[in-house]
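Work through this protein:
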Amino acid sequence: MDRLADVLTVVALGFVALRLVEGVRHARSRRGRELLLSIVRGIRWRHFWPVPLVLTAVVTAASVLLLVPGLDWGWWSALGGTGNPVMGDTERTSGTALEWLVPLVFITLLALALPLFAHAEERMFRTGAELWSPRRRALKVVQFGLIHTLIGIPIGVALALSIGGAYFMAVYLQCFRATGSQTEATLESARAHTVYNATIVSFVLAILVVDVIW
């Protein structure tokens, strides 16, 4: 069983690494660079100040939901991983140099293409929301959270991430009402999403650095 878990862990990390490398390659392409710069150059203070409030709500909700039997399950943790495989953190590498090297490489790759990953999710879950009914918007918000179970995040945490999805939805709709443009609204919600994700990545990186030092 341990041998199977080791194989599945390597497969999962390999798949994530491939996706991250593809994201970096896209970020280096002409279209990718243009989109990335369009997102980053438009980031303002309004994208930063709500993040601590949103993350506090997400963490609080996740803490409660994880107490519900069954909602604490995620396939990555079942394999001995912690967090999610995008960060490359797993008990399988505990006590070795890979314990910090793999997460460091994964976080670096993720950071290089973070705005593009955020934009892709915003196109999937927010673009066109101005035409949706309140019920469909709510469903999309929940779907946004639950899709994270595919990358191994526990079900309860994934549901809590719907709060972030609701925040991005509000940003999208506010911008659309102001501009009347789906493109601009998607870029605006992608900026909010990028800052939100960057805050999480920075926090994880800080923890990793402290662990290595101490």
